[in-house]
Design goal:
Blueprint: H1 2-38, H2 42-70, H3 76-86, H4 97-131, H5 137-142
Helix pairs in contact: 1-2, 1-4
Length: about 160
């Protein structure tokens, strides 16, 4: 019984390591996406978004596999893995090197995910700004407004 639980803990550790690598890969892909947005390279952006979508699906799949294996643990192992994976940064008693490794890799992954989310928000904001049409004073006049209209806005006359 204990050997089975230890084997499952080892599988979880392996999946956590894989998931961390996938998140790091997503970070690189998101940085490439940032470059494509800056260059307004929509062809590259489309390819990068497709690759990124695949990587995100693999991260989610690894997360699900970890959760599935964790739920098959018994007794103290189930409670321990729940605390290590889901309890946040609170003090978790780590009884052996495998516990420490599971906790540390999970923490690294959470930190990498936070950075990824921050970069993703930034790239999305840049993309939104790049996709908005720029309107010059001349364009405002041609649109029926006045060059002295509200900053950034058009006066539309009915």
């Amino acid at each position: 019984m204990e050997d089975t639980n230890l084997s499952k803990m080892s599988q979880i550790l392996s999946l956590l390591r894989d998931r961390y690598k996938l998140v790091e890969s997503l970070m690189s892909t998101t940085k490439e996406m940032e470059k494509a947005v800056a260059l307004n390279d929509m062809d590259s952006l489309g390819m990068i978004l497709s690759m990124r979508e695949d990587a995100m699906a693999r991260v989610d799949q690894a997360r699900q596999e970890i959760a599935d294996i964790a739920e098959t643990l018994e007794g103290q192992y189930l409670e321990k893995i729940r605390r290590m994976l889901y309890q946040g940064d609170e003090e978790v008693p780590l009884e052996n090197p495998m516990d420490e490794e599971i906790f540390n890799v999970n923490k690294q992954t959470k930190n990498a995910m936070k950075k990824l989310i921050e970069l993703d928000v930034s790239v999305n904001e840049r993309f939104q700004q790049a996709s908005r049409p720029s309107v010059s004073g001349r364009d405002k006049l041609e649109a029926g407004g006045s060059a002295g209209a509200r900053p950034g806005g058009l006066e539309i006359k009915a």
